[in-house]
Amino acid sequence: MPEPTGVIHDIGYQRYTGLRLGRRQVFGALYLHGVRTVFGLGRSAKAKIFPWLVVGIVGMVAAAVTAIRTQIGEVVMTYAQFADAMSWLVIFFVAVAAPELVSRDLRSGVLPLYFSRPLPRADYPLAKLLALVTGLWLLLGAPQLVMFLGGAFTADGMRGVWDELLDLLPGLLYAGLWAVIFASVGLLIASLTGKRAFAAGGIVAVFLMTTPIVGVLSILPSQTANQLAGVASPPTLVQGVGLWAMRDLLITDQDGVGPDLGPFGPVYALVAVALVAACVALLLARYRKVAAR
Q: Tens digits of per-residue pLDDT, 264-284?
């Protein structure tokens, strides 16, 4: 028999003997990296321009509202109303952040590398979704803290500070509602394509194209259609849920007259839950399909 000619060379590679982290650490790393990505941290200066421009605008609005309140001694915008006022900025923020979270990975084909680690298929989209929800909540919640500090310093004693805190907490919950619904819809749309421009355009189109539907339904002769018009668009759906759950904080009319939901307030809440559940289910199904390729 011929002598073997192969030679094994020792070039210094060593086996990893350290602690091997598991699923929780992988999920946490994906989540933290996602939050950083939402705000462009760890990326080029170009990637930071739009997120921090939006953060700056939102912060300046909160500072202006706080300054006006300290001057005139009256609340010009509640915490919940602040989230409503920033809704258009939130739409464009989602349109930029969601494609950065998922479309880039789809386009570069790195998902098989993620799934080669101890990472269940569902953990990847859930970590990205949680990161986007956190980013949106911080975008709306942090300026509310600025407003709270301004209100607390001008409050009359500890009782006034406590009342101010009781006003802040529903506002933060309302900001969380905006974050959950917008992140669920935006990330699902972004997961459908690896091209960030297409994903961003699709997100903006979905939010904007549903707005005229609300307008059409609201002018129909049917009162039921008028009262249910808001469920046709994510922004008005969020406002309807907030109005039903926190009516005293969202009314902007001095006479106490807000949009008429009639008896359909619970319907808005059920539709919101169903929308989030459907988006999450479709997102998980999407990544099961991607992973199977």
A: 889 999 999 999 999 999 999
Question: If you count them, how many residues does the chain have?
Answer: 293
Q: Map residue 192 onto helix, strand or coil.
A: coil
Asked if 187 and 101 touch (Cβ cutoff 8 Å), the reply is yes
Hey, how many other C-beta atoms are within 10 angstroms of the C-beta on 229? 22
The set of long-range contacts for 60-69, using a CB threshold of 8 Å and a minimum separation of 24, is 61/85, 61/86, 61/143, 62/143, 62/144, 62/146, 62/147, 63/146, 65/147, 66/146, 66/147, 66/149, 66/150, 66/151, 67/150, 69/147, 69/150, 69/151, 69/154
Query: Which of 258, 279, 248, 210 shows the shortest CA–CA distance to 79?
Result: 248
- How far apart (Å, rounded) are the C-alpha atoms in residues 132 and 155? 34
